[in-house]
Amino acid sequence: MYQDNSFAQSIRFIKGVGEASARLFTKLGIHTVNDAINYFPREYEDRTKVKKIIEVMDGEECGVSARLVTEIAETRPRRNLLVTKALVTDGTAYLSLTWFNQTYIKSSLQKDVEYIFFGKAKRTGMRIEMNSPVIEKADRSGKTTGRILPVYPLTKGLTQAHVRNLVENSLYLVKDKLEETLPEDLRKKHKLGQVKFSYEEIHFPKSFTNMEEARRRLVFEELLLLQLTLIRSKGISSEQKGISFQPVDMTPLLSKLTFSLTNAQKRVFEEIRTDMESDRRMNRLIQGDVGSGKTIVAVMALYIAAKNGYQSAFMVPTEILAEQHYRSVCSLFDDLGITVSLLTGSTKKKEKEEIKSLLKDGKIDVVIGTHAILEDDTEFSQLGLVITDEQHRFGVRQRAKISGKGENPDILVMTATPIPRTLSLVLYGDLDVSIIDELPPNRKPIDTYAVDESYRQRIYNFIRKNVAQGRQAYIVCPLVEDSEEIPAESAEGLAERIRDNELIGLRVGLIHGKMKPADKETVMRAFVKGELDVLVSTTVIEVGVNVPNATLMVIENAERFGLAQLHQLRGRVGRGEHKSYCILINQSRSEISKQRLEILASTNDGFVISEKDLELRGPGDVFGVRQHGLPEMRIANLYRDMDILKEVQEAVKYIMSNNLLDTDEQYRPLAERLDSIMNEKFREIAIN
Ligand code: ADP
Ligand code: MG
C-alpha cells in the first residue's frame, strides 16, 4: 500500500514480539506493521487522574502518588489464596492496599520509592482502601498510569500489554513515513486531522479531545475509501459486456394481467428493459416497499429473456416463497410457450435430476427456487438472467456464484427492506438502483394498533368477527415452542391454547420453520385455499407470502421484533380489496418499546420506518451485517457515524463531479491509494 516497505514488514521483527505471540496476533488479523497500526482500540481507560489521598471519594477510579509506610504483609488464610497488604501515604492520609494471589507484589515494592497506585477506591469514614491497584514507579509514570490507555480487542493468550507494546513499537517505526492521502482542501473543509497526528492520538491520546479528532479523521477516511471504491467497481462492472437482448412485444403477457401497471412499475421496467437491450451487463437493484408490486416487474424481465431464447434463474430465500412465485409465474407463462420449473431443497431426488438435465439441455426456460439452484451440478445451457428476490437473505458471494453459471448474465436484485438512501450507497454502491415508490391504487392503509395484554379478549372477538365475514387472520409468535429461558409466546403453545379455548370452533393452522417442508407446504396451501381461518406462525411468513383474503395480522410480543421486520409482517395483509388491520401486542412495560411500536402505528411508509429503526437500533441489527454483505470496517460504526457518513457522501459528490481524482495533483495520493485497493479487491475476486 505504501512505497516504503517498513509497512509490509512482518511483526515478527518488532521488539518484544516472539514466535508464539506473533501466531496469536495472526488470529487478530495482524501480520504486518501496517496491520498493527490499523488495529484500533475498542475503548479507552482514563488513568490521567492523580489525586491526594485525602480527597479520594468512595467508588472513585483514580491514581495516587504515595510511599510505603510499613513492611508488606503476606498471609495465607486458605490454601490457594495469598493476600498481600500494604499501607501507603502521600502525607495527606493513609491508604490500605490489598492484592490477591499476586506473588510478585512483595518483591517489587520498595521502601522510600514513590509509586503511582491506580484503582477503584473504597472509603468508609476515614478509612480509605483500594483492591488490586495497578502499580507504577512515579518517576516512570506514563506507561500504565497518568495517561489515557487504549483498550484493544484481545484473543486468548494475549494481554493488553502485548498489544500496546506491538502497536507502540510499530507506530514508532513508521510514523514519520505515513503518507497523507487526504488533500488539504478536503481536510480543511471537513475539519480533519493530519495523518500522523491521527494515528498517534487514536492509539495513545494525550487527551480525549485529541482522540475524538483523530477518530473523526480515520472514520472519514475509511468511509471515503469505501465509497470511492464502490463507485469505481461500479464503473468497471458497467463496462462489462453483457447480452444485448432483442426488443420483445410485451402485449401477450400484459394482456393477461387483471390490473394495469402503476407509473412507478412502468418507469422501473423501462430502466430494466434499457439495461437488457444494451450490450452492457445489467447490475440493478429494485427497491420497493412491501406490496409495491416488484414481482410482476421481475416476471416481465423473465419474459424478455425467454423470448430471446435465454434461460433465467429466479432465486428466493424460502421454499414457501419459491412455491408461491412458481404458481403465479406458471399461471402467466403456461400458454405463452415458456417452460417453468421449481427447484428447492425438498424437490425429490429423481425429479431434481430430471430438472437439472433439462436445464443443461436448454429445455427449461425459467427455473424458480432456493439455494438448491446454487448446487454445483446445476448447469445451464444459456443462462441470460439471474434474479434474486429479497436480497437481504442472500450474500454477495451467492450472487456471484449463480452468475458464474452463465457468461455474464444480467443481474437483477430485489429487496423488500426499504433502505435509507445514505445506507443504500454503502450497501449497494456497486449496483444501479431503481425504486418503485408508489403502491397500486386503491390500497387502503393498514390500520395498526399497538396494545397491551389487557386487549387480548377484544382481539379474539375481532378475529371471530373477521372470520365471520369470510376473511382470514395471521397470528405471529416469536418462538416455535415454549421455552424456559425466554418468556414469550410460542407458535405451538399458542395454537394449542386458542384451538381449545379462545378460538374454539375456528379452523386454526400452525406453521413454523422446524416443520418438514412438505408439511409446511400442506398447511400453506390450505391457508391459501381458505381451508383455514387462522394461521399461527413464526416469522417464516415474513417475506413475500401473498394471501389477499387475509386481512388481519396479530403479532405477539411485538416488542421483540425489529421495526423493519414488523413492517414486513404487516405487509402480509392489505393485499386484496378488503380493509386490513395489524395489531401489535406489546408485552413489555418499557417506554422505549412503546415508542417504537407507536412509530409503526403512525406510518405505513417503509422508508420512514427503516430510517427510524436505524436510528434506534443501528444497521447491524436492522439488516444483519453479514446477511447484507455489509463491508467490514476497522473503525467506522455506521450507527454512531451516520453524520460523518453524510459528510463523506458530500465529499464524494464533490470529488466525482469535479473529476478531481484524475485531474487534480493534490488528489493523486488518494487516487493511487484507491488503485491499490482496487487491485487487491480484484485479486481477491480472482482467487474466489
Ligand atoms: P412486493 O413488492 O411486496 O413483492 P408483490 O409483487 O407481491 O409485492 O405484489 C403484491 C400484490 O399486488 C400482488 O397480489 C400483485 O398481484 C398486486 N399488484 C401488483 N401490481 C399491481 C398493480 N399495478 N395494480 C394492482 N395490483 C397490483
Ligand atoms: Mg415480493
Provide the descriptors you would attach to this structure in a database record.
OB fold (Dihydrolipoamide Acetyltransferase, E2P), 40% helix, 6-stranded parallel beta sheet, binds magnesium ion, DNA polymerase, domain 1, globular, binds adenosine-5'-diphosphate, disordered C terminus, 688 residues, 7-stranded parallel beta sheet, alpha/beta, 5 domains
Q: What secondary-structure arrangement, pairings included, does this model have?
A:
Layout: H1 19-27, H2 33-37, E1 43-46, E2 50-51, E3 61-68, E4 73-78, E5 81-89, E6 94-100, H3 105-108, E7 115-124, E8 127-131, E9 134-137, E10 148-151, H4 160-174, H5 184-189, H6 195-203, H7 208-239, H8 251-254, H9 263-277, E11 283-288, H10 294-307, E12 311-315, H11 319-333, E13 340-343, H12 349-360, E14 366-369, E15 383-388, H13 396-403, E16 410-415, H14 421-428, E17 432-436, E18 447-451, H15 456-468, E19 472-476, H16 491-500, E20 508-511, H17 517-528, E21 534-537, E22 550-555, H18 563-570, E23 581-585, H19 591-602, H20 606-617, H21 619-628, H22 642-657, H23 660-663, H24 668-687
Parallel strand pairs: 2-3, 6-8, 11-16, 11-17, 12-14, 12-15, 13-14, 15-16, 18-23, 19-21, 19-22, 20-21, 22-23
Antiparallel strand pairs: 1-10, 3-5, 3-7, 4-5, 5-6, 7-8, 7-9
Helix pairs in contact: 6-7, 7-22, 9-10, 20-21
Bound molecules: adenosine-5'-diphosphate (ADP) and magnesium ion.
